[in-house]
Design brief:
The chain has about 300 residues and is α/β, with parallel strands linked by helices. About 40% of the residues lie in helices and about 15% in strands. Helix 4 crosses helix 5.
């Protein structure tokens, strides 16, 4: 997860409603929300907010949150993925999972500018404000302060994963034979298991799905299509949420439906057609013709 850049996250949500039957358990959730999550991570704030929304959904009574990862859920992506309801985080065998770490990057051009006779000055209020930036001298104290900031974010990330996956991580840790002795939940041994099980996965490393299952990062190896098909075979009614994007106003005439590849030739033909349509539609409004050159159009910059 980076505290400087943001990568796109693509999510598709499928809502699964439990069928009405006499055999249903009254205590089981009436609704299951399946999130198809694919993300390599991005900015801390953005993914932290997204994870909070998923946590709110997970905590809603009567809803089971299932998250499926077919390709990648790394760094901020895993911060979101671990918010699945207990035992409901699934991934494909060769999906990339984990990367529980933080990276901060900065380029300093102070010396390069000085070589050209340029001396930038930076004025700060607060000694820890922007310890390392593009301009200004890089000091040892500034480097240490920046590293402390990264470490604090990482500690918060680790705690986030521990709260969401502690039981699964400890169970996988004990299953590998690290310590087979029975322990009480509040015992020191249990706390040691929790710390060790977290340390071996929360170091920035990335794991394949088959490895993540053994480490307790995920609960089952299965693709999203397989899981949804499985639910349908069990008689569950499945509803898929599809988001339709529509351009408003004249921009829809120029740009057409979203997700189409842009072509200058098609755009030129479309623009000429639109101009002709506007000119002909304006002709005769007040008994006179309106020249197309008098019509001004503000075109969207979304190419």
């Amino acid at each position: 997860m980076s505290n400087t850049t943001d990568d796109a996250t693509t999510t598709t949500t499928t809502t699964t409603a439990a069928p009405e039957s006499e055999g249903n358990d009254a205590s089981s959730p009436a609704l299951e929300v399946i999130v198809l999550l694919e993300s390599p991570g991005g900015s801390v704030s953005s993914y932290g907010l997204a994870a909070s929304h998923l946590q709110r959904l997970r905590s809603t009574p009567g809803i089971k949150l299932t998250i499926c990862v077919d390709s990648v859920a790394a760094s901020g992506g895993y911060m979101m993925a671990c918010m699945a309801s207990p035992n409901q985080l699934f991934c494909a065998p060769f999906a990339m999972v984990g990367s529980i770490g933080v990276i901060g990057q900065s380029v300093n051009v102070q010396k390069a500018l000085q070589n050209f006779g340029i001396r930038p000055y930076v004025f700060l209020g607060g000694k820890n404000k922007q310890p390392v930036g593009m301009l200004g001298d890089v000091t040892k104290d500034g480097m240490e302060t920046m590293q402390l900031m990264i470490d604090r974010i990482h500690d918060s990330f680790r705690e986030h994963v521990r709260e969401a996956r502690e039981e699964s991580l400890v169970k996988a840790f004990v299953a590998e034979g690290a310590d087979k002795s029975p322990t009480n939940y509040f015992s020191q041994a249990k706390l040691s298991h929790s710390q060790q099980s977290l340390d071996r996965v929360a170091n920035g490393d990335v794991f394949l799905g088959v490895q993540a299952l053994k480490l307790g990062l995920v609960d089952r190896l299965i693709t999203s299509d397989e899981y949804i098909a499985e639910r349908i075979q069990h008689g569950t009614r499945v509803l898929k949420l599809v988001i339709h994007h529509r351009h408003a106003g004249l921009s829809s005439l120029f740009l057409g439906p979203p997700h189409h590849s842009f072509s200058w030739n098609k755009w030129s033909v479309r623009a000429k057609s639109v101009m002709s349509t506007i000119a002909s539609s304006w002709s005769g409004i007040d008994g006179s013709n309106v020249s197309p050159t008098n019509v001004q159009l503000k075109m969207d910059a979304h190419l």
